[in-house]
Amino acid sequence: MQEMRNGMMHFPPPVSRDRVISKFPKCYTPQACLQIKEDWDAKAACKERTDRHQGWDRLKMSKAVVVGDLNVGKTCLINRFCKDVFDRDYKATIGVDFEIERFELSGAPFSLQIWDTAGQEKFKCIASAYYRGAQVIITVFDMADIKSLEHSWQWLDEAMRENEPGSCSVFLVGTKSDLLAPEERQRTERDAIKIATKMKAEFWSVSAKTGENVQGFFFRVASLAFEDSVLKDMEKGITSTRIGGGDSIKSDRANLEEPQSRAVNTNCC
Ligand SMILES: Nc1nc2c(ncn2[C@@H]2O[C@H](COP(=O)(O)OP(=O)(O)O)[C@@H](O)[C@H]2O)c(=O)[nH]1
Ligand SMILES: [Mg+2]
């Protein structure tokens, strides 16, 4: 992202203020979550990279694919987060397969590609390139249509066929929470939590119409994807720096593996 012009280094424009995340975002419910910790594991590594401007020249980007039955609310969910609108016709963007959202997480830059289908799910023929190389799979169902929850398994299977086991974080998202009476919502959430646990997925209940939990959900996706990619880099030895007071990466990684900070459902899929 960083380029040289007239011998000067150019950095991308600052991340918009509503995409700066300094506190590690919480899960929706600890009953079906991927991480229960409350702070960034890789904070030290990230901070050091940023301080030395290492983050900007190797900008991190993860791919998130959104899947689920037709009409469950996938496009509305993405539009609510990326454009803060509901039910407006953005069909003009056909041909553009994904949105890119730029974040600043714990001081480090990070981008999330959010892939939406152009309605191919109607024919159950989404191209394999859509799923390939995803770090995040967001399986969406309509909380007012229990069949779409049952179909989540098929969508997850299809997405996983194109990805390595253990390479993705999976989210199960119930949309249209605004349509349900409180008792019905509770019942549906209980069913969804059971399925999410079996899928090793993190469950969220959202409404694109009211905006409820939409930002919280995407902040969580971005934060978990970011951490995952930093930790994977560290495992591959890409971060060759020493962290903190001279601790080696190895001992730092040992710290990361302390039980209190271990994920409940890590390395899902
Ligand atoms: N009440 C309500 N309706 C929604 C919500 N999200 C989407 N919808 C409606 O559900 C329909 C399908 O939404 P869309 O995003 O196009 O579904 P997609 O096919 O999964 O992309 C549209 O008529 C939306 O207005 C929501 O949060 N609440
Ligand atoms: Mg759509």
Descriptive report:
It is a single chain. The protein has 9 helices and 9 strands. It has a single domain, classed as P-loop containing nucleotide triphosphate hydrolases (Rossmann fold), CATH 3.40.50.300. The strands form 2 sheets. The chain has a 7-stranded mixed beta sheet, sandwiched between helices. A two-stranded antiparallel sheet has the order 1-2. The protein has 269 residues and is an alpha/beta fold. Mean pLDDT is 80; it is low at 239-269. Helix 7 links the parallel strand 8 and strand 9. 39% of the residues are buried. It starts with a strand and ends in a 13-residue tail after the last helix. Guanosine-5'-diphosphate (GDP) is lined by residues 68, 70-76, 87, 175-176, 178-179, 207-209. It comes from Oncorhynchus kisutch. Belongs to the small GTPase superfamily. Rab family. This is Ras-related protein Rab-36. One of its GO terms (cellular component) is Golgi membrane. It is an enzyme of class 3 (hydrolase).
Q: What's the layout of helices and strands?
A:
Blueprint: E1 3-5, E2 8-10, E3 20-21, H1 43-51, H2 54-57, E4 60-67, H3 74-83, E5 98-105, E6 108-115, H4 128-131, E7 136-142, H5 146-150, H6 152-161, E8 169-175, H7 182-199, E9 202-205, H8 214-236, H9 249-256
Parallel strand pairs: 3-5, 4-6, 4-7, 7-8, 8-9
Antiparallel strand pairs: 1-2, 5-6
Share in β-strands: 15-25%
Gyration radius, rounded: 19 Å
How many beta-strand segments?
9
Q: What is the C-level CATH assignment?
A: Alpha Beta
Give me the number of helical elements.
Answer: 9
Question: Overall 3D geometry?
Answer: globular
Q: Which fold name is given in CATH as the topology? A: Rossmann fold
CATH superfamily: P-loop containing nucleotide triphosphate hydrolases
Order the strands across the largest sheet as they lie in space. 3-5-6-4-7-8-9
Biggest sheet statistics: 7 strands, mixed
Provide the domain count.
1
Q: What's the CATH architecture?
A: 3-Layer(aba) Sandwich
Q: What's the N-to-C terminus distance?
A: 31 Å
Give the % helix. Answer: 25-40%
Structural class: alpha/beta
Low-confidence stretches: 239-269
* Ions, cofactors and other bound molecules: guanosine-5'-diphosphate, magnesium ion
Average pLDDT level: 80
